[in-house]
Every structure is written in C-alpha cells, then in structure tokens.
Amino acid sequence: MASPGSSFIIVGAGVFGLSTAIHLQHRGFKNVTIFDKQDYHKSAYSPFDGGDSASADSHKVIRSAYGPNKPLQDLANRAIGTWKQWNADSGVELFSHSGWARVTDIGRPQDVDIATFNTLKLVGLGDTQYFLNNDEDLKRARQQGWYGPRFDQFNRRERGLPLDGVFDANAGMVQADLACKYALQLAKSGGATTIFGPGQGEFTEFIRAENEPDRVIGIKTKDGKEHRADYVIVAAGPYTPQIVPELQSFVTATAGNFIFVKVPEHVRHRYEADVFPTWAWNYSGNSESGGLTGFPVDRHGNLKISYRSPKWTNPVASTSQEALISIPVTIEEIASHGGPPLSPLEETKAFIKENLPELVGEEITLAKMCWYTDTVDLQFVMDRVPSTEGLVVVTGGSGHGFKFLPVLGEYVVDVLEGKSNEYTQLWKWRTPSAEDIARIQTNTTSDERNWHKQPLASAENLKW
Hints:
Layout: E1 7-11, H1 15-26, E2 31-36, H2 40-43, E3 59-62, H3 70-90, E4 95-96, E5 100-104, H4 111-122, E6 129-131, H5 135-144, E7 164-168, E8 172-175, H6 176-189, E9 193-196, E10 203-209, E11 212-221, E12 226-228, E13 231-234, H7 240-243, E14 251-262, E15 278-281, E16 292-294, E17 302-312, E18 315-317, E19 324-326, H8 331-337, H9 342-355, E20 364-375, E21 381-384, E22 391-395, H10 409-417, H11 422-426, H12 434-445
Parallel strand pairs: 1-2, 1-13, 2-9, 5-15, 13-22
Antiparallel strand pairs: 3-8, 4-8, 5-7, 6-7, 10-11, 11-12, 14-17, 14-20, 15-16, 16-17, 18-19, 21-22
Domain FAD dependent oxidoreductase: 8-414
InterPro entries: FAD-dep_OxRdtase, FAD/NAD-bd_sf, MTOX
GO molecular function: flavin adenine dinucleotide binding; sarcosine oxidase activity
C-alpha cells in the first residue's frame, strides 16, 4: 500500500489525471509527476489552440441527472458543491449554475427524465426539475425566477412546433479549458512536476523490476529517458487500453463530434447562459441514441453543439489479442485522411435551420472529432491492474467523467491506500462477459461506426 514517502507517476493530464494529482496532495503525498504527450502549458486545454482530447474543450455539462443511478447522482451533487467552491477560490466563474434544458419533440418527457425526477426527489431535490408542459411546474418556475426564455430557448411554441421535456435547475455547465487549467494550477501549486509535450512527455513503455516482470517501477518516454516511481497511474484517456492491453476486452476508444458556430456580436445577448442554457435535444440518457447537446455562446463568441450517436470507431489490429481494437486518431491524422465524418455536420446544420434559424449562414469555426474511453457498462475503471504490482488504471470516462473533476481523485487515493467503499467497489477491475466482449467487437468492426468508411467533411462542407 502507498505510504507517505511513496512516489507517483501519472500518465495523462486530462480530468482523471489532474483529479488524481490533486487528491494525492490532499492526502499528503508530495512526490507526483504528471506526463502527457500534449503540451497543455501551450494550448491551455483549448480546442482552438491545439488541445486534442476530451478534456480540452470549451464547455461541458455539469448535472446530477442520472436516472435511477443514485450513486452517480450523489457524487455529482457533491462535485457541484466543490465546483461552486472552486469558483470562489479561483475568482473565475468556472461553473455556471444556469440549468440544463432537456428538450424533446416526441410529445412527452423522456423516460430518463421521469426516472431522474424520482431519484432526485429521494434526496430532496425534486423541486429542481420543472416539466415544460406541467402548469404547476411552470407556475413554480415563475415564482422562483427560473421561467423565461430558457424554458423555450428555441422559440418553438411561438412557431407552432412541438415542445416537451424538463428544465433541470440543479445543473449547469463548466468552462472546460479554464477548469482544467485551474486544476493543473492546483496540482502544480501543491508540488506536482509536469513533463509535457511530444518526446519528453510521451509514454513508450513500462520499466519493470529486474527479475520481477510483474512489477512496474517506472516508464520510458519517447525521448529515451527513464523515469522511476513506486506507482505508475495510467490516466491516458482513450490511449489507456493501448498502454495497458489487459483493458482491451472491456474498454475501447470511440469518438463523438463537436461543431462550433460563430454567433454575430449583435445577437450574442440572446445566447448567453442566463437565457440560453445548456440543452439536450431528444436526450434519452443513452449515448447511443442521445441526440444533440449544445451550450450557450462562449467567451470567444462560439456556440458549441456536440453529436455522439453513433459513436465512431477506428479499428486496428491489436498487438496483444486476435480481435481488432479501436484507437483514437489525432487532429492531424483526421485532416490528412480527409476530415471528420460528414453526417454530424449535416445533422447539426439541419437542427440549426429548424431551431436557430438566425444562425444559418454564420461561420462554422471548427468541426472536430473528440475521442473518449468507453467501458462496456459506462462505469469508470479505477483499480490496480491484476497481477502487476505498482500499476494502477484510472479510465473509462465514457463521455460523462468531466463533471467529477473536483472529487474523482479521492477514490483513486482510496485504491492506493487499500480503502474500500461504494465507489471503489463500483469501479473495480471487472471481468467482462462473453456477451460484453462480443458487443465491443461488433461495435468496433461495424462499417456504420468505422469513421474511415463514412463520407467525410471537407472544408467546403463547413459552408452553408
């Protein structure tokens, strides 16, 4: 078990790695070094300045709406409390408590919204959910100051279009790049060393103890240097299954898409968070059929819309198993291949034409793929690697990990200290069933998901 003098290498400076570093320091561990092949000091986690990861983004949803999943709901509510504290500590509005509109055109709320209401009600938060076609809820929203444009931010009722769903007043959004930058600042101020950039920050292999091949004692980086520590914690997002092949049967890389549209200055006031909150369109609670998600205008004047259905894959041969695996693709590789898939861009344009017509024809500033790490059950993996001493994995964000940035690392340290609780048990190493393995393999090899086999978006497609 980790002791006060233990040293730690963290591979990956995204949400999971940053949170781990911060909580190691909270527990008194000071010898922490974070590696990443991306130079986050240079990009500051901005997707517009070279940031190429799920953590490097403009906005993320912060919510505790988890249907009947009370453990994640409770943890998300605790994270929201810490996000508010980080606002005060940083002097920056990292987290905006502006609500989340989950909007549908199917004539009723989604099943996940009803389940979320019932679960939140158990912890006294049922009154934070306002059903958009419930007269009592709308009356309560007016009394409490929530009602207004945010209850129909696409102006559908006035245009005679169907509208239903929920406004979630317990949710909001975070400025993702600023949040990661602040978390990195916290880690460094606590004494963490950072080694970033191609070559010096890029993992190539583990160093194993002489005569003890099942014991990891450090890593080698692409510049040929060796770095040693008592524990190596791999938190490298979608690259983690490549680094730790034992994960490949139940953890895989998949991609969604981000589209950014420039909002003209003279109408930006209509897209600010207080009137145009974070929203989801036909959100089912399942990332396989979750529709679109969008955000208010950011500080640079961009409105972001994300698309994650279906999840794209990039199948390649595995070096450790017969089955194919999906691995992430960099921005440069995508550009050289021809661009990201076309369908998300076309669907986003169609959505804008129906729901945000005044933005039709405005500049599409960026269309990019965003690679995540999915597990078969969408739960995280946070545990020691079986039969390998000194090696820990923290992975499986599955598109919903960012909100837990302020609190997630606490449970990584619990694993290191040998403490068992609800969350270390929930996220422990698991053996996938034959059905799980078959499902990952089917998804990985599906022509419908293989991004190489999709019509791709060229620069011309960014035009209207």
